[in-house]
Please model this.
Amino acid sequence: METTEKRGFEYKFDCKPDYGFITVTIPSDVKLKVEAAAMATMDTNIEMKTKFKGGFSRFLGGESIFINEFTARNGAGQIQIAPACPGDVEHVYLDNEVIYLQNTAFVASADTVTVESKFQGLAKGFFSGEKLFLIKCSGTGDLWFNSYGGIIPIDVEDGYVVDTGHIVAFTEGLDYQVSKVGGYKSLFFSGEGLVCRFSGKGKVWIQTRKIQPFLSWVNPFRPKKNN
Model:
């Protein structure tokens, strides 16, 4: 368990790194933004409001973000947050900075952090599970994100190569290009293929597992219907 009382919100982690669970204390009349459906418990003096980030056209394209806003009234209150994905949770305090998250990694943030989708373009769209957008988090304040598996931070000084399925987040200032490793046979038959080649100086957070190989492993054990 990790307990932290630094800048921003007071919070603690439980059950890291397997099933990360976050408890945040919200000061009176202060707002906390949380991924939709991630609230597990909260004090009775906390009010919730649902916000929809992005227009209707983006919703049709799968790019919108649903965020619930929680505000403590008449005193501080605690909220406990359980991310959907079984894995680790991480915290950073942004100081007029920008972090890009894979499309499922956002968990919660201070209201002073702007959370928005960012189109990647067709070539970069293989990142974040073949979706065509990242989540851009910018401003000053607390930010929490999660992964599938454990989270490992890596300082990038010049360049670094990461399998696209293992990337959780990275800082602004790092550029990246998606490319394949090996030939087309490697891409389709070896289980390896697409990587992000980062350049510049910054930080990348990677996850120790990726979802697609797990789904492939589970598939033979699924019950089959008789026709």
User: Anything to note?
Assistant: The radius of gyration is 19 Å. The chain has a mean pLDDT of 81. Helices lie at 56-60, 184-189, 211-218. The chain has three helices and 18 strands.
